[in-house]
Amino acid sequence: MIRKYVSLAQMSMQNSIAYRSSFIINIVGSLLLLVSMMYLWKAIYAERTEVGGFTWEAMKAYLLITFISNSVLSFTSEGRIAGKIRDGSVSLDLLKPLDFQKARFSETLGTSLFEGTVTIVLTILILALFSGVQMPVGFTAWILFAISLLAALLVKFGVVYLAGLCCFWTDSFYGISLARAAITNLLSGALAPLAFFPDWLKSLCLLLPFQGIVHIPASIYLGQASSMEAVRMVAVQLIWGVVLWLLGKLLWNIAVKKVTIHGG
To answer: Can you tell me where the transmembrane regions are (predicted)?
Structure first.
């Protein structure tokens, strides 16, 4: 059974490589945004050495983590989920001996493998352009950061999957996608570190799953949490990943009842 999902992941990766124009456009857009943010924050740090507890070296690292998080699970994966619902091909998936959610996650992993490789290469090039980026201290920090990034992928998939299923009730996928992206970027800390937020908004963000996409990986990378605290934060990511997965199954069971297959 697992072999079927592995095959889906492989086919998804192959499709991403073969039809890479969409990804290239998305990654160029993300790259331009990153460079713009780099120069914006560089100007802010021109007259100071620290802002909100972040040095310039730490802020550069934070922006790179945001770039990686937004690039690994791109619009391509999100559009694939909603596209099956909007064009009606979801009805064919109901006839296959595969779980719809697991199949979409397998495809996302396959696509992310290719996109992640490209993102890492681009990140190395950016590191060469903007020297002096803060690095994790110690092997344990690197391991926890890597695990946290994988957990962030699970959390983001959960959010994206739920947003995609909303297309059962509306054809406005781009509206849903834009709203999802705006909420995710704000509450995850992608637009600015949560440390810069008012206390009430920061407290709210720390209660929601979005923190697991950028804030937690960045906090672990920058050494803002001890090893035990980092383990706890990864556990929070995994718990939210499971909760979002279960919510996705629940919403799917409700939404699939709206599918009508004519002729049988």
So the answer is: 21-41, 61-77, 112-133, 139-161, 173-194, 234-255
